[in-house]
Amino acid sequence: MTADRMSRSARLRWTTASELLRLVHAEPGITRTAACERLSLASGAATELIERLRGARLLAEHRAERGGRGRPTTVLGAHPRGPLAAVVDLRAAGWRVLLGGLDGVLTETAAGSYGDREPAGFLPEVAGAVAAAVRREPGRVGAVVAAVAGAVSGTRLLQFSTRGWHEADLGVLGSGAGVPLLVGNDATLGGIAEARGGAARGARAALHLLVAVGIGGALLVDGRPVIGARGAGGEYGHLPLGDPDLACPCGARGCWDLMVDGRALARHRGDPAPADPFAYGRDVLDAVRSGTAPARDRRAVERTARALGAGIAGLVNLHDPDAVTIAGLAPDLRAAAPDAFADAYRGGLMAFHRADPPPVADAARGADGPVQGALALGVDEITGPAALARWGG
Question: Does the domain made of 3-78 have the CATH classification 1.10.10.10?
Answer without folding.
Answer: yes
